[in-house]
Amino acid sequence: MNRVKTRTSKTGEIVAYSEGAIRNNISAVEYCRTSMAAISGCAAGILGLSGTLGFLFYFLSVFVLWLLVLGKSGTQWRKYFINRKNLLTNQFMGGLCTYVLFWTFLYGMVHVY
């Protein structure tokens, strides 16, 4: 069921959001985040990053993806997402698990065996 959510902006006007559209946008971002975690985990494993440097690589790739999504949505990001903070922090740990899975697998395949 699609519902329209509203909130009051700083100027006092009521802003309406389509719940279905917001869910679709967040779903697309989650797909990008999962794909980015897998690809950057593969890159980190192949490059032989280990320890803190490997985790810093994940944080950097999450931040770059966040900037790319904000750049794609342009200055009108409020049309597509409710706030920017959720784009950066939503499903952070799920992406980290995917990253570590691919990172350790490729690291083991390339540098151990």
UniProtKB/TrEMBL annotation:
InterPro entries: Emc6, EMC6-like. It is found in: Endoplasmic reticulum membrane. Coiled coil: none annotated. It comes from the Eukaryota. It is a multi-pass membrane protein. The chain crosses the membrane at residues 55-71, 92-110. Its main location: endoplasmic reticulum. Keywords: Endoplasmic reticulum, Membrane, Transmembrane, Transmembrane helix. GO terms for cellular component: EMC complex. Pfam families: EMC6. PANTHER family: ER MEMBRANE PROTEIN COMPLEX SUBUNIT 6. Belongs to the EMC6 family. This is ER membrane protein complex subunit 6. The lineage of its organism: Eukaryota, Metazoa, Ecdysozoa, Arthropoda, Hexapoda. The gene is LOC111598814.
